[in-house]
Amino acid sequence: MGKNSWQKSLDYILAREAQLMYQRAPGFHPEKGDLKKWVGELPGRDQYFHIKFKIELIVPDNYPNEPPVLRVVTPCKHPNVMDDGSVSLRILDQWKGNYHLYQVINGIKGLFARAPPMPAATITPSTKPAASVVVEPETVIEEVSIEEESEALKQRVGLMEQELERMQKSLAKRDEDLAMARAKMFVHNIPEKGEISEKSLFMPDSKPEKDLLELESEKIAIEDLLASLEEKFADGELSATDYTKLYRQYKKQLYLVNKAFDEKQSERGAS
Fold first, then answer.
1. Residue 166 — pLDDT band, cuts 50, 70, 90?
2. pLDDT for 28-38, tens place per residue?
3. What is the percent of the chain with per-residue pLDDT over 90, rounded to a whole number?
4. Where does CATH 3.10.110.10 sit in the chain?
5. What b/e sequence results for 155-173 when a residue is b if at least 16 CB atoms lie within 10 Å of its CB, and e otherwise?
6. CATH among 3.10.180.10, 3.10.110.10, 1.10.1040.10, 3.40.50.300 for 3-119
7. What average pLDDT does the segment 190-216 reach?
8. What are phi and psi of 43, to 5 degrees?
9. Which of 77, 194, 240, 243 has the CA that lies 20 to 30 A from 209?
């Protein structure tokens, strides 16, 4: 491939990556309009909530054959962040040509959600302002036996746990259906708003291409679910137990979909 042809191909790839970054990595933007350099910030956790960790993602000339370069610009302490700011991340270590930039951002978001970074020693942690103490008036409480109170409490807790579990399953199913619908719209080039043009729709005719498109839809949907899972955990909407359970479930599904996708691509290449 000539230099001009390769540059045109890279420009197309960068435009496609930019579309995905804007949709799936909010808060990140190209520095000075350069689509080969993306910057953004990730918030600290706990006592370092006031600190923003600047992230830099640089696209090499040989992308996507080579992985992007990920750096944490803000000085910090983390087992996966080197002294020069470079990051050890599984997706980068096991890079494949069909991966995307936003997946790297989701990867470091998940890493920092599970193991929050600490700022350099020169930065002192902040503490949230203490809430005002309200002194409540004494009230007369009717005496109830410990056994009766304990049994009633167990029943109420049991009912609340059942209702919470039902609601969580319902929300998880809704999120999964919504993620799958959005993914299918994306791979078929269907706009979320406005009129649909038949010319713009991507509808392959052959079964192998349809199968690949369906697997790509599933892959994008699961990746979106993992990203939203990290956000919900970081915002305190999910307990550590629920987060771990769903994380393992989605990771297993993503592994199986990626495996099936690679097999289909190999079959298509052999035919």
1. low
2. 999 998 999 99
3. 25
4. 3-119
5. eeeeeeeeeeeeeeeeeee
6. 3.10.110.10
7. 60
8. -75, 150
9. 194
